[in-house]
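Input record (one chain):
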Amino acid sequence: MKSSFPIRCQCGYEIVLETVGTDSFKDTSCPNCHSAICVVDNGFVSTRVFNKSFSELHSGDFTVAIIFSAMAVECELARVFVKWKGIDLGLPTDVTQAHLDLWDAQLRQWAKIAVRLDKVCEFLTNRNFDAFVTNHSKLVASIKERHPESAGHVSIKKFVVERLFWKRNAIVHLGKIDFTLSDAEACRRTAETLFQIISEMDFVRRRRLDGKS
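The corresponding structure, as predicted from the sequence alone:
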């Protein structure tokens, strides 16, 4: 199965990498500024889980597709958090298992996804989730295009949590299994939006690092 992975060059140009099966994403160069791009951290787990949600959706298992969509977002959020914790510490040689255990404990402490979205966003961008999104016109435009029904929501965080994670919780906590194709498709669109937002958080953090160097 083909997997895709969006990345941003330091110049800001967005590139979508593709690979097949369990192969790694290959190093490449930016078509815009021609800088070399070495793919060290490729989100192997989160992208595979997200692609699994796609295959489950098309096989007709809408319940599992919703679970995998939510799980993929949680994997990606944890990935960028741990990645930047490691970079701040001196990745990769200075990272020990004790550090990894500490960061895992922090993520588990933020058990509610709404809290975790805020905490990771604050760590990467110095803004909470809603403030970060509303101050990026590209994200706002993309969300309006992908989710026209979000227009009446004051909080994008509340919107994505209700659209994706409430449905996941209804499945795993309450045993609700009668979700439809349209439900699963809406959850995947919400997960796509969250992947895009997390990618922008990651890019902002990288710009901050570049500004210090």
